[in-house]
Design a protein that fits this description.
about 240 residues, Beta-Lactamase, single chain, about 10% strand, 12 helices, 5-stranded antiparallel β-sheet, 2 domains, Arc Repressor Mutant, subunit A, alpha+beta
Length: about 240
């Protein structure tokens, strides 16, 4: 996947996405091809949203990083969020430079967190949906983007965010109910457990575990366990 090629075909590609997992796979590939480590799609937080976990739509940020970010309330005085709320222009960031005005303790902690996961640099792209809701895409890693790359990525971000908004709206009209056993099996699967291990932990047969996971996969409209875990994490069905 090359950025120029993706820029030329993104309208067709974005229109063909039918699930969040398809978007996830695409963004993971694009991020890797750009030599970066992580991507994030989020809604810009209102006053009642103070956690990245509540604002995220789709991301491959490690779950433990999200938990650490929220536990230390980094969003409340985030200079990145403040800049996006006051401007619609995309921008490169350096985690050290953009956090200069934070209190010394918080500044050191947030810089350490992003560097720990190889996300010390990158760019944010403010976008919006058809209803006027504001959001953003970020791609993070060890470098910044030039102006041509920024322009192409902004176009890609705009089309993908629009498609994600349609998919999310559609999903919200389809409430999904899970049994306690299904959620337990899904949560343990997300934690890297195999069916045999889950069976021992829950004191049920391995066949029962596979049936529960199979039911979850079907309810989420997925085809594999990995897809189901990604979808469940995005919808906040489970947390790991």
């Amino acid at each position: 996947m090359k950025l120029e090629a993706e820029f030329n075909r993104i309208e067709e590609v974005a229109a063909a996405f039918n699930t969040h997992y398809e978007v996830f796979k695409y963004m993971k590939g694009l991020t890797q091809d750009l030599g970066m480590n992580a991507f994030l799609f989020m809604t810009l937080p209102t006053v009642d949203i103070v956690e990245i976990g509540a604002a995220k739509i789709l991301t491959n940020w490690p779950a433990e990083m999200v938990d650490c970010y929220d536990a230390q309330t980094f969003m409340i005085d985030s200079p990145v969020i403040r800049r996006m709320l006051s401007s619609t222009s995309p921008f490169n960031y350096d985690v050290e430079g953009i956090n200069t005005d934070r209190g010394e303790g918080k500044k050191v902690a947030v810089i350490d967190l992003f560097k720990r996961y190889g996300m010390e640099k990158g760019a944010y792209f403010p976008v919006h949906d058809a209803g006027g809701g504001r959001g953003a895409m970020s791609i993070s890693g060890s470098r910044n983007f030039n102006m041509v790359e920024m322009a192409k990525l902004l176009f890609i971000a705009t089309l993908i965010y629009d498609r994600l908004s349609h998919l999310t709206l559609s999903e919200r009209h389809k409430p999904i109910e899970f049994s306690r056993s299904e959620l337990d099996c899904l949560r343990l699967t997300a934690g890297g457990r195999k069916s045999s291990e889950i069976a021992k932990l829950l004191q049920v047969s391995e066949n029962a575990v596979n049936n529960h996971i199979g039911s979850v996969i079907k309810k989420l409209g997925c085809t594999t366990r990995t897809q189901a875990v990604v979808s469940a994490l995005r919808l906040n069905v489970i947390r790991v």
